[in-house]
Design goal:
Blueprint lengths: L1 H6 L4 E5 L17 H4 L12 H11 L3 E5 L9
Parallel strand pairs: 1-2
Length: 77
């Protein structure tokens, strides 16, 4: 997907990394996102940091990476 975006002229990736009072990165303050494993609070297995991966992929393509944090959105159960 990043390669396709680069080909059409996109030079920056904006990614929401706090989707629902959780995180797409390792944090001491908020749980892992359910969008990664299907269950909020469960780390990816095998372990990796998705945001670090996204940063590396963006930079490999010569693109900037911007993380969007929305501290107000909560998960309703």
């Amino acid at each position: 997907m990043v390669e396709k975006l680069k080909k059409i002229g996109i030079n920056t990736l904006f990614v929401q990394v706090r989707p629902a009072a959780d995180a797409l990165y390792e944090s001491d303050f908020v749980p892992w996102s359910a969008f990664l494993t299907g269950k909020q609070g469960t780390a990816p297995e095998p372990f990796y940091d998705p945001m670090q991966y996204m940063i590396e992929v963006a930079h490999q393509q010569g693109m900037e990476f911007h993380a969007w944090l929305n501290p107000y959105r909560a998960l309703l159960t």
